[in-house]
Amino acid sequence: MSQIRIVSINREKDRFLVCPFVMSWGINRVTDRFFRSLKGPGVTAGDVGVALLDSFAFIERTGPLELSLEEQENFWRHDTRYRTYRAFVRNNDLVEVTNYKDKVCLFNRKWAG
Length: 113
Description:
Helices cover 26% and strands 35% of the residues. It has three helices and six strands; from the N terminus they run E-E-E-E-H-H-H-E-E. Strands 1, 2, 3, 4, 5 and 6 form a six-stranded antiparallel beta sheet that branches.
């Protein structure tokens, strides 16, 4: 198991979609076998933190997985109103949280779509 753990947090207005990356075919890939969708004005930073820790725990428990191409491409479909991935990425902000053995890094991106 790799020492690097990555979780994706997508935000659209008052909705957060938290998905972990797992090792698949030698590369870290995002998966929808585990996800958290947090919605509404009552979502706190603590709620996002718990979802993040749950995602890291999933990565630790699971180890490498064989993901189909469909699984790799459709992680974003949970609790979303968008019909295409292009529309999803144009309307969401992305933060990737990487947990190395000795530090945590945040990468904030706006998808170009």
